[in-house]
Amino acid sequence: MLIKITKMKTDVLIIGSGPIGATYARIIAEHKPATKIVMIDLGPKISDKIGQHVKNITDLKTAETAQILSQGNKKEPYPMISVAERAAAVQRGDLRPEFLARAGTHLVIDEIADLQKNEMPALSLSSNLGGMGVHWTCACPRPGNDERIPFIPASEMDDALTKAEEILSVRQDAFPKNEVGQTILNVLNQTLGTAHSTKREAQAMPLACGKDADGNRYWTATDTILKDTLENTNFEIRSETICRKLIHSEGKITGAEIEDLTSGIKEMIEAKIVIVAADAIRTPQLLWASGIRPKALGHYLNEHPFIFTFVELNIPNAQSTTSKSHDPLTGVFWVPFDAPNHPFHGQIMHMDLSPMKTTVSDISKHIVGLGWGCLKEVNFDDQIVFSEIEKDYLGMPKMTFKYKYSENDLASIEAAKQFQAKVIASFGKEIENGQQTLMPAGSSLHYEGTTRMGVENNSESVCDTFGQVWNFENLFVGGNGVIPMATTSNPTLTSVALAVRSAEKIVEKL
């Protein structure tokens, strides 16, 4: 029986609906409102509002349902396990999925036998309308000196970062100032010292967050990024729709083979411009499945090593800062990357309720989660390996991962631990079973390099500095995968800035 494949045309096809895809759509629609844009995502719509952040859903049961819907083929909630319990499991080498994955994500490899062999066991994705942007921490620090892309002019990148901050509604006053928060900053700055660059002292974390006159927060995700684009009659967004393959001929994408996962109906979309912003793992997967296989594709896989711990603050008579929100965070702080004085990235989360009640001597004490990251050397051999035969649960090429720490990487990890230990000593004491833990590879969720940009069409890059894939006139890639540098700061702001540059280039082409 022959299956009829319908055909349609559009000006722009965007594959992926996270912050990057949404940025492309918004800029193109703002500059060229008559441009027909179709955006697709393989995941479902998980709440009443398209692409809203889960933290904006006030009903806890509804929020949990939204997280479960994002978990790919994992259709039940993960066990209630505290961060400390996860860290303890990691320390004893227990790599079961319930200790590795987090609510709203699903492991790329979840079979226990495969996990033991996988060199990036905690690598996880979110499958939903809005992508990982529905679940992210909204942290948007600007990259430090050695994290900046050397072949993009500094002034040009700064302009793009400023535009990205506007699109994401980045602010440093998402949480109100209070006595405990100021004490946290004082301790961090005392440990950091004064040898830092301008504006790289410890400070409130820049967060992507709207805030009304009453101080209520609304966290940024695809809904707020798209903004008025959602009302544009020339914009169409489809959930549970997967792109199986890009059809190409003589350096041009001539069609995209898509499938509605609920009905099985297949369609061929012809577009003047195709943008793949599916994430740093599934973007190269789609290109590879389409026979677009430059040597660098899937290689140079990078993420920052991540050391985590919890401490009780030794602050006598500190006033409670209990929040009315279901979100236990009452403040997020940042120790910026600033080599050589502080060649790490510190993210500090102040909580008004301990996630580990049974291990805290006094649950009224203030709890601080300390996350410290460091750079990992960029290596061609750190890579995604695509299978020619085996398929994943969606019928796309199955992926495994090669990923190793070099001697220099191990030295950087040890140095980050030592700096973090100084902070711990200044704050108070570590919580029982919550001691410093190097989290398993993949835990940061900040995956980079798999579709990396470059200045020359050679074996070391997949696209140019505007995300245009080498040797293709109408194919662009976006997202963390295009970042060619080793970074340790949260990468979303940089990726949105790069998407801004790319989208403005596409507007010129259109």
Automatic annotation (TrEMBL):
Cofactor: FAD
Domain Glucose-methanol-choline oxidoreductase N-terminal: 151-305
Molecular-function annotations in GO: flavin adenine dinucleotide binding; oxidoreductase activity, acting on CH-OH group of donors
Domain spans labelled Glucose-methanol-choline oxidoreductase C-terminal: 391-499
Record keywords: FAD, Flavoprotein, Oxidoreductase
This protein's record includes keyword Oxidoreductase: yes
InterPro entries reported for this sequence: FAD/NAD-bd_sf, GMC_OxRdtase_N, GMC_OxRtase_C, P2Ox-like
Family: Belongs to the GMC oxidoreductase family.
PANTHER family found in the cross-reference section: PYRANOSE 2-OXIDASE
Protein name: Choline dehydrogenase
Organism: Lacihabitans soyangensis
